[in-house]
Amino acid sequence: MRFPTAKEYDGKINLCEHLTSFNIRIKLQRAFNTLKCIIFPCSLKRAILLWFSYFTKRSIKS
User: Fold this and answer.
1) What b/e string do you get for 26-56 counting C-beta neighbours within 10 Å, with b at 16 or more?
2) In angstroms, how far is the first alpha carbon of the chain from the final one?
């Protein structure tokens, strides 16, 4: 499965726009929620990725 490329989120662009774009791209791939969770960190950049990496497994509830 090839994931469409997009600008990584670096905290300088609008977060809502980034999440909307990510969700649209992932829907195009018909990905399952598990795959979305694996791919999402790839859409982050630098300090945001570092911050995200500190979350422990199952610590984020929706």
Assistant:
1) beeeebeeeeeeebeeebbeeebeeeeeeee
2) 26
* Structure confidence at residue 13 (pLDDT): 81
This model's pTM is above 0.70: no
Residue 3 has, within 13 A of its CA and on its CB side, a CA count of 17
The more confident residue out of 58 and 2 is 58
Of 39, 33, 40, 3, the residue nearest 19 (C-alpha): 40
φ/ψ bin of 57: left (φ > 0), alpha (ψ from -120 to 50), beta (otherwise): beta
- The predicted pLDDT at position 36 comes to 76
